[in-house]
């Protein structure tokens, strides 16, 4: 055993340090099985002091560190690269709730807590932690903040960043940044906690988080509206936002092609309209109480929308079962596309008012570059977030996606930049989008980011090869 590993064992203990090949194997690949790396050790600390000790040793020996949450990230950011010197630090054993306060409406927890567990703990206390995503029963809150996760409630409550009051993090030097307070108001200089959010583990390791809680929404009402175009969806959104205000919880969009895909691959789904339309919008309103009031508000909105010709047809849910079956038409799209075969995903965001122009222009560019490829466009329209996914042309081999990945991404991302958007709405950069990020990001922003990285991590040990 070399000096570094011996020191790790001596200072952290056998039960924290894993270095046998069979023990570390499960920590070397990503959730989708796209990336695979190497490491000399996996550390599973039990507290912040052990994380600090581990980072101090890694820095002293110049060993690269890969922070690991629930490993549900979609861009290879928690997977070590090919260096056999990597040390993976997993937060999975740091999973205690430190405090939950229903007067201040705050929750303080270890960074390794599973998001779903935190949501359930908040619900048991009669509160809601609004961060919610399909991977919530595997992802950890530290990973959620490190990727600035979005999910289904962004329209009303914002991204993960907007839910955070405080952070405790260990710097590569082993020093602890103690910003774990629950103050609503703290205007004392730079807001350093924000730098760790979305940093994908490149600045330090988040060990504790303080989050804001919200009242629980007991009542929901949903409408599926058919629209002629993205422009009509935009006008409909304007009306809903004005009339429903903060009760507007979701405004999702999908094209008729997506509906075709769901009908072909998902079981037990039905089209609730007598005829098909170019696109659909799924709207959800939610409130703490007053189901009748909520339903009446939605019906009033729909009357106005139909009168002003802001949609073509609409179905308002009248039971929980119907509400769930309407949501399935939107939620089953990703799975249906996976069943359809390999495809290219682009999780992009745009200034919402430019989505219609973008869709028209991008469709032309993509067809010029890849004639016949099939676009499936859906997403959190109200957040300006589209999943601009493309499947192989009819009759093309399944290898099409892998062969055309980079060329197609260049075309899509060039359009995104031309319309003032972002090449990554939610999933981050990691290894997957590093090239596109370095190509598309404003050079001044990149320079500032490099300066911040140098300040926090002068030895460049934190998650090298990711983001920058
Ligand atoms: C089915 C599915 C659905 C998803 N839906 C969404 C969605 O709707 N919205 C969305 O935004 N994302 C979504 N994702 C992506 C993923 O769930 C999120 O990115 C999630 O926030 C990652 O958390 P994690 O704990 O799994 O992090 P990991 O994958 O383990 O790590 C992600 C990054 O964070 C770093 N990291 C992890 N923990 C820490 C820590 N404590 N300190 C410092 N750095 C750390 C890692 O090094 C890595 O860079 C989805 C993923 C799946 C598989």
UniProtKB/TrEMBL annotation:
<dbReference type="InterPro" id="IPR051264">
    <property type="entry name" value="FAD-oxidored/transferase_4"/>
</dbReference>
<dbReference type="InterPro" id="IPR016171">
    <property type="entry name" value="Vanillyl_alc_oxidase_C-sub2"/>
</dbReference>
<keyword id="KW-0274">FAD</keyword>
<dbReference type="Pfam" id="PF01565">
    <property type="entry name" value="FAD_binding_4"/>
</dbReference>
<feature type="domain" description="FAD-binding PCMH-type">
    <location>
        <begin position="35"/>
        <end position="216"/>
    </location>
</feature>
<dbReference type="GO" id="GO:0003824">
    <property type="term" value="F:catalytic activity"/>
</dbReference>
<dbReference type="GO" id="GO:0071949">
    <property type="term" value="F:FAD binding"/>
</dbReference>
<dbReference type="InterPro" id="IPR036318">
    <property type="entry name" value="FAD-bd_PCMH-like_sf"/>
</dbReference>
<dbReference type="GO" id="GO:0022904">
    <property type="term" value="P:respiratory electron transport chain"/>
</dbReference>
<dbReference type="InterPro" id="IPR016166">
    <property type="entry name" value="FAD-bd_PCMH"/>
</dbReference>
<dbReference type="InterPro" id="IPR016169">
    <property type="entry name" value="FAD-bd_PCMH_sub2"/>
</dbReference>
<dbReference type="InterPro" id="IPR016167">
    <property type="entry name" value="FAD-bd_PCMH_sub1"/>
</dbReference>
<dbReference type="InterPro" id="IPR006094">
    <property type="entry name" value="Oxid_FAD_bind_N"/>
</dbReference>
<dbReference type="Pfam" id="PF02913">
    <property type="entry name" value="FAD-oxidase_C"/>
</dbReference>
<protein>
    <submittedName>
        <fullName>Hydroxyacid dehydrogenase</fullName>
    </submittedName>
</protein>
<dbReference type="InterPro" id="IPR004113">
    <property type="entry name" value="FAD-bd_oxidored_4_C"/>
</dbReference>
<dbReference type="InterPro" id="IPR016164">
    <property type="entry name" value="FAD-linked_Oxase-like_C"/>
</dbReference>
<comment type="similarity">
    <text>Belongs to the FAD-binding oxidoreductase/transferase type 4 family.</text>
</comment>
<keyword id="KW-0285">Flavoprotein</keyword>
